Amino acid sequence: MDSATIRSSFLKFFEERGHLVLPGHSLVPEDDPTLLWINAGMAPLKKYFTGKQRPVNPRMVSAQPSLRTNDIENVGKTARHLTLFEMLGNFSVGDYFKEDAIPWAWEYLTQILHLPPERLWVTIYPEDQEAETIWQKVGVPKARITPLEDNFWDIGGGPCGPDSEVYFDRGPETGCGRSSCKPGCDCDRFLEIWNLVFTQFNHNPDGSFTPLPRKNIDTGMGLERIASVLQETETNFETDLLFPLIQQACQLSGRSYHESPKTDVALRVIADHTRAIVFAIGDGVLPSNEGRGYVIRRLLRRAVRFGKQLGIVEPFLGKLVPTVGTVMGREYPRIVEGASVIRRAIEQEESRFLETLEAGESRLAVLIETAKREGRTKITGEEAFELYDTYGFPLDLTDDAAAEYGLKVDHDGFEIAMKIQREKSRKDAAERKGMRLANSAWADFQEACAFVGYEKDACEAAILRIVEEGNEVAEAGEGSQVEIALAQTPFYPEGGGQVGDHGRIEGNNGWIEVQDCRRAPNGQPIHMGIVREGRVRRGDQVQAIVDPAWRKDVKKNHTVTHLFHKALREVLGPHVHQAGSLVEPTRMRFDFTHFAPLTSEEIKRVEAIVNEQIWLDSAVTTTYMPLEQAKALGAEALFEERYGEQVRMVSVGTFSRELCGGTHVSHAGEIQLAVVTSETGIAAGVRRIEVLTGRWALQWLNQRRDELEKSAQLLGTDALDVSAKIAQLQEELESQKRQIAQIEAKQRQQLSISLAQQVEQVAGIPTVVARVDAADGETLRSLVDAVRQRLGSCAVLLASTSAEGRVSLVAALTPDWVERGLDARAWLRATAAVLGGKGGGRKELAQGGGKDAKKLAEAFATARQWLEASAVSSR
C-alpha cells in the first residue's frame, strides 16, 4: 500500500465516524510562543484541548507535517529518526474516550490495513486496567499486553493521562534473540506504530491528580513508520516517501545506496533534510541566523556537507525540490505552487555556504589536528564559535565532524562565547541608539498614563513624575535634560518600528522641547526633552502638543509600510514577511525575508502597486476585535509578536490588513507618492528597501531630474535620449580602443623584428638582451614571445624602466635550451639581484624586477655572464 493510500484511508476511516478532516497546518505555529515548530499532530489543536477555543466539531482527524530536531545527530544512522515526519492522528475534545478510541484503532489496523493481528502488541500504563480490559475485548490476548511505567503523558502540570502504544512485531530474526523480548526492549524487533493518549486527569500544583470533567483523546501514528511496515522496508528511508529522494541523490553523486554504511548515512540525511527544508521554506521560513531560520540553515548546511562527502561539489539540493513535490505535492499543494521560490531560496543559501565551506573545513581540520596533538578530547567552545561566526558552521555540524575523529565539542564554552558576542552587539546597538531612558528611575512607576494620540495631536494633562540625570525630582529649570510622565498624552512612544513623537509640553511657568518618547519598564509613555524656558513642577497642568508636521509625515510613512508589505508579497510570494522596520518622518525603511536581490522590474511592479493604492485614496480604518477574528479576515501578524485576545487591525481599503499599534493616515491619498530609493541585503535571507513619500519623494525625484538635465546638456542631447547618447559614446570609445590596439600591435610587431635583429651569440646560444622603452609587464611578455617565435631557438631577456627608477624584467628560453638544463627562473634571479630585486616563474618563462635602474648595464652584463657559464656547465 503506497503512502498516499495509507493517508487517505486513515482520513476516510475517521471521517466516516463523524470526524472533521482538518487540512495539514503550516509548520509555523500560530499565536503559540511556546513552540518553535509544529512538532506533533496535536500541536495546532492546543487551543481546543486547553479550552481557549471551542472546536466546530469535537471529533477531528488530520495528517500533519511535523518538525523535530532534538535528535538530529541520529538522523540517517538509525532506521526511524527523522526531522520532518507526517503524523496521522484522530482527536476528541470532550467527546468519545477509550471505549471508542481503542476499538477504532484495532479495526483500522486489522481491517483496513490488514495487519496480521498476531503481530500486533500493545503497551499500557500499569494502573490503567480500563485500557487493558478494552484491548482484550477487541482481541488482544493478555500475553501481548505489556505494562510500562513510562506510558503516562504528563508535561508537569495541567491535563495529563495514561497512554497506550501499538507495536508491530518485525520478527525474532530482527531482535536481540532473548525469549523475554517484548515491547520496551531496546532492540529493533518491536516497532511502535501508534500512540493513543487518554487525557483524563489534571496534575495539580500540589502534585495530586484529579479526574477531568471532560476527557480527551489525542493519538499519533507516524506515516513513515506505518508505510515501512506495509511496504516491508528495513527502514523509513526505503519507503515511497523518502526513497525517490535517495535515488535522485545517487544519480547526482554517482554513488549507490548500500555501497557503504557511511554513504547510506549521507544519502539518508540529504533525503530527510531536503524534505524538511522544502516544507519550511514553503511555509515562509527562510534560512537566517535566528529562530526558525537558523534551524533551516543548520539542516541545509548539514545536507550540503554530507553531499560533499559523496563527492558533490556544486549546488544540488535545489534539484531535489521537484521530487519532493512529486511525492507529497498532491496532499500539500503549497510546496508545488511555491516550488520556484523554494528552489531559488535553497540554491542561494547553498551557493553562499559552499563559498565558505572549503575554508571552514580546512580550519576545522587544523583545530582537530591541534586538539589531537595536545591530547585533548574536545574542540573548545571558542574554536567552535570561531567556526560558527567566521565560516557559518552550525554547532551540530562541528559536532558531526569532530565525532568522526573521536572528539567532542565544548557546548558550554560555545554558549559562553555566543553570550559574550550577543552582549557586545547589544552594547554597540545601545551606544548607536543615542538617547536612552533612565529605566532604574521608572522601574517602580505604576501610575496609568493614557495614550490619546489616535484621536488627537494635543491634550491637557498633569505632570505625574519628573526625572533628571536618573533621579526623580520635584521640579526642573531651564536647560535641564528631563524625562516626564503625564496623566495622558498624544505622544506616541517608540514601538513597532515607529519612532517616538516630537513636540512641546507647555505650562504656565515654562515649556519643554520633547525630542523623543519612549516606554517605561511598565509600558507608560515617557517624554524625553529639554526645558527650554522657565521651570516645570510635578503636578503642573500642561498642554502636550505633538509637532503636527512630524506626526503627519510619520503617519504617511507608517501606512506606506503596510502597503509595501502587501505589495512585496504579491510580487515576490507568500514567503515574504516583515523582518523589521523604521518609520521616521523623512523616510521609511522596511526589512523583509527574501533570498535574492530584487530586480529593477520587480521594484517597479512593487512601486506601481503601492502608488495605485495611494491614488485610489481608500479609507484607512482601525478596528478592535478578537485575535482569531482578525486572522480569519487575513490580517498580517508578525510571527514572533505576542498579541492579546483583543487586537487593533489597521485596514487600507480591502488591499491590506495588519495588526498594528501605530499611527496612520485616514485615507491612502494623504501619502501622495511613494518611491523606492534603495534595495540592499542586510543579512542572509533578509532584504531592505528604503522609501520616501510625499514631499520628500518629490524632492528626491526633482534632484534626479536636475542631474539628468545637466547630464543631457553636457552630452548635447535631450534628457530622454541620455542613455542612447551614452551608449553611442561608449561604442565610439570601444571603436577607438580597438584602433589603438591595432596600432600598438603593429608597433610591437615592428619592435619584435628590430629586437630579433639584435641577436648575438653567447656561448653558442642565439641571445637577445635589450631594453624596451615605456613597456609594462604584459607588453614585455608579448615581445618576448614574438622574438622567440621569430628566432625559433634562443634566449631572450628584456627590461623596461619606470620614471621612478624601477625595472621590470622578463626572461625566456625556447624548449630546446630548457631540455639542455637551462632555467629562465635562475637566469632572471641572477640578473634581478644586481638591481636589488627578485623574480620567479617557470623554466621557460620568468618575470621579476628591481629597484635600481642605474645598474641596468651591469645587470645585462651579468645576464650574459650567467648564460655563458650555464651553457658551458650544461654541455
List key phrases describing it.
25% strand; alpha+beta; 34 strands; 875 residues; nine-stranded mixed beta sheet; globular
Give the helices and strands, then pairings.
Layout: H1 3-15, E1 20-22, H2 46-49, E2 59-67, E3 84-93, H3 98-112, E4 120-124, H4 129-138, E5 145-147, E6 152-153, E7 158-169, E8 190-203, E9 209-222, H5 223-230, H6 243-253, H7 261-282, H8 291-309, H9 321-328, H10 334-337, H11 339-373, E10 378-379, H12 381-391, H13 395-403, E11 408-409, H14 411-433, E12 450-451, E13 458-468, E14 471-473, E15 475-477, E16 481-486, E17 488-489, E18 503-506, E19 510-519, E20 525-537, E21 541-546, H15 548-572, E22 578-583, E23 588-593, H16 600-616, E24 620-626, H17 627-632, E25 646-652, E26 656-659, E27 674-683, E28 686-693, H18 694-715, H19 722-756, E29 760-762, E30 765-771, H20 777-791, E31 795-801, E32 807-813, H21 815-819, H22 824-834, E33 838-841, E34 845-850, H23 856-874
Parallel strand pairs: 1-2, 4-5, 10-11, 12-17, 30-31
Antiparallel strand pairs: 2-3, 3-9, 4-7, 6-7, 7-8, 8-9, 13-14, 13-16, 13-21, 15-20, 16-20, 18-19, 18-21, 19-20, 22-23, 23-28, 24-25, 25-26, 27-28, 29-30, 31-32, 32-34, 33-34
Outline the structure in words.
- The strands form 7 sheets. Strands 1, 2, 3, 4, 5, 6, 7, 8 and 9 form a 9-stranded mixed beta sheet that branches. A 6-stranded antiparallel β-barrel has the order 13-16-20-19-18-21.
- It is built from 23 helices and 34 strands.
- The longest helix is centred in the middle third of the chain and has 35 residues, at 339-373.
- By secondary structure, it is of the alpha+beta class.
- The mean pLDDT is 91.
- It is globular and about 110 Å long.
